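Please predict the structure of the following assembly.
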Amino acid sequence: MEKRVRFKSRWLPWVLVAPQLAITLIFFYWPAAQALLQSVMMDAPFGGSLEFVGLDNFRQLFNDPDYLASFRTTAIFSILVAVCGLSISLLLAVMANRVVRGERFYKTLLIWPYAVAPVVAGVLWVFMFASPMGVIAFWLQAVGINWNHLLNSNHAMTLIIIAAVWKQISYNFLFFLAGLQSIPKSLIEAAAIDGASPWRRFWTIVFPLLSPTTFFLLVINVVYSFFDTFGIIDATTKGGPGKDTSILVYKVYYDGFKAMDMGGSAAQSVILMAIVVTLTVIQFRFVEKKVQY
Amino acid sequence: MASITLSKVFKSYGSGKTANQVIHGVSAEIHDGEFVVVVGPSGCGKSTLLRMVAGLEEISGGEISIGSRVVNDLEPSERDIAMVFQNYALYPHMSVFDNMAYGLKIARVPKDEIKARVDKAAKILELGQYLNRKPRELSGGQRQRVAMGRAIVRQPQVFLFDEPLSNLDAKLRAHTRLEIQKLHRDLGITSLFVTHDQVEAMTLAQRMIVMNAGIMEQFGTPEEVYARPASTFVATFIGSPPMNLIKEAPGAKPGVTVGIRPEHLDITDSGWALTVDALETLGAERLVYGRWQHGEGYELVIIRCDEGRPVPQLGSTIHVTPRPDRLHYFDTTTGKRI
Amino acid sequence: MVERRPVLTFVSHLILVLGIIIIAFPLYLTFVASTQTAEQITQSIPMSLVPGTNLIETYRTALFGGETSAGSNLSGAARMMWVSLVTALIIPIGKTTISLLSAFAIVYFRFPFRNTVFWLIFITLMLPVEVRIGPTYEVVASLGMLNTYAGLTIPLIASATATFLFRQFFLTVPDELVEAARIDGAGPMRFFRDVLIPLSATSIAALFVIQFIYGWNQYLWPLLMTTHEDMYPVVMGIKRLLGGEAYTEWNVVMATAILAMLPPALVVILMQKWFVKGLVDTEK
């Protein structure tokens, strides 16, 4: 899409893009180039000089069981967050779309967790699961579950998933609700006249028509669980027990800033960037398609 | 006030071999104070021509002058023109007053003069009570008048209209046509008006330019264009239903197309034999669609009869005779009038 | 709905109410905890679910710090709230400004390398700061921007989301408006100021709301960027109250959490219309 008319000036457009371009170059391209550079370098053990090591850092990474485990952890975590988050939000959105009265009221009460910082979300949930005073930990005890997310990795994973899903429900809910409201009512009515029950109508008409929204949210949720959940993990499990909840972003941070392995951390950054770029391309393809029909 | 001179105006998009020429050398002289309508089917280049006069499109070749100034390299605001757009292009966030005053404010016209001019325009257009409203609070017709008001307050040498009536409903369109005529009578400003609607063209124009595929087919008064169309294109484009064009008319020379308007065919006792294919009743008149069989093929001939004539039966054979002084002859290959 | 099904409608309301209760429960508990004393929380197992009487005292400590009953010395959240506020305002203002300008240039001008510039900016569309923390940290450090508002905000302004949003919006502005403005004699900047900016008002508001929340909730970046206590944003401050030394003052933590949640939550709820618009627009 292009404008038919344009202004003419040799210098003005450059002045206009200069601030954004400068910030992008300094805080995006320069660091990205540095990451690429560092990912093929290694600190000499003594003294400040750097040594070119080619793809060694990457080779090391993919031979590192910790890193591979972190990949697996990230995959499990993001799939579960996306699936749980999407199902719950879809259920709530469908219900909110059904009720004639109170839709706005429900909406207002459901969207506020979006405003909660991930790290605060983490604090809120760890407080309920912490022993000894944690309310949920106590109730679980009562039904015979000895909750301890500091020692049990499944418990730890469950905790970060709950916190991550809780925070993301609002977002998914809003998009699902918008998607539902954009489905022409006449279609639903036609199906009702054809004698389809609400349940059947949902699965044969509403859900298929919602698939662009669902797909979009799927990508967004994966990106969310990849990156935005850093705060949740740092506030709850700190990647533990062991490294069992250390997702990729957490590992980049830990290796780079706690273990001070800049080369390894940079190589991880490069891999993460590649992942995001891939996701972006998928997303873009999808958006283009959506615009077309 | 000023005349507009177009001399060998060309427009092409792109350059080199991929260049796509859309205006192929149009020359015309529009007199001072004249109301000229440019009419043609969509894509014929009429809007492009207007936008070149306005300075919104660059001129690829030739020269455009307004008054005695060549305006090729002047900015739109320096050409002393005003334009009314098809979708009115009102600034949605400004009041009616501000919409009309914006250009004057930029030109640093003193405040009280701006107010005087806007008030005067509002009075002419009966917009006085709407000056504080936003465009979205107005009806289509009112918005259209604001767009005209914006043009009037500039007191330009030339008015340019780009299909300003096409977003109005039929009734309002007829009414606004009369208003524009009156406005032109009162202000006497040279106007160039683009439309695809031949009724608008016929009713508004003092002279009209008929365009087709980037070429000016004819430039003349509505009467001339109707009575002596310069080409088969003009003959069929102007007039509804269009002129009948018959390629191998009885008695015509080969290579000559004969044209006859539906109202110049009389149903008589003898003459061309036609089979009645369809009938349309339009109230005051009736259209008869006659099928004229010749050789392998056939042609449809439309006859316009006054109400009150006997109604021919569908499928029956009728005979028609053209009025001899109303026949037109065109070269079949070039389409030009002979 | 299409037909009357009272039972189904009842079930819908029931599910929604349940959903709200579950979602709001952590918030309620946080509030309750913030009204009790640290001892009340840790000594009753589980903690009491009714609000206590220590509300004012807890929030005073949370905001202004001081010696707590358990003997730890806390610094208050007031300064951190201020840092958060400044950050959360600079980011949307900066982002909106540079994005409006660059989107305007890209949409309304033809200039050499326009496409290159376009792509240079747009590749950054989805790359969050998290994936490039290490190198970005080094750049910021070498520019001497650690522990400054500039360091806290400018690297986060470098994102194309807003530029993309405005570009999309500008493309929907009818060409005739520019033409009308040109005939009216308005130059590019005049058109930008008098027509484009007012027309973008709702987009700007929507973006502002979203970016305010984004800025307020930053955690990882300030964690790296700041080493001075007076440059900590509140979101980061909470984390530091947690499990530092032996004893966690849960009531103060929870009060600080409420304080940290309040501004963005209010923004979301009070500016719901713009918030929803911003969310939908920035992600398209």
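Residues 256 and 288 of chain B are 25 Å apart (CA to CA). The first strand of chain B starts at residue 4 and ends at 13.
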